Amino acid sequence: MTREEVYETLNGVFQDVFDDESITVNDETTSDDIDGWDSLEHINLIAAVEQEFGVKFNMGQVVSMKNVGEMVDIILSQID
């Protein structure tokens, strides 16, 4: 799976979790960029991403992710 394919899939996950069809994420996207992305929705987002990609984030990864680009890096490292 390419980075672009991961982003295509992630856009759908973000749109579903935040119920906003206009969301498009990129490497620099953070919780500050998306309305409603608080700590509770972060948990929902992580669970949805794990289910969609068949990956599992450890707690260290979850708390250290600074932006969506880092999330994509972790996803790619687990599915390659």
UniProtKB/TrEMBL annotation:
PROSITE patterns with a match to the protein in the record: CARRIER
This protein's name: Acyl carrier protein
UniProt xrefs under InterPro entries: ACP-like_sf, PP-bd_ACP
Pfam families linked to this entry: PP-binding
Superkingdom of the source species: Bacteria
Domain Carrier: 1-79
Source organism of this protein record: Candidatus Eisenbergiella merdipullorum
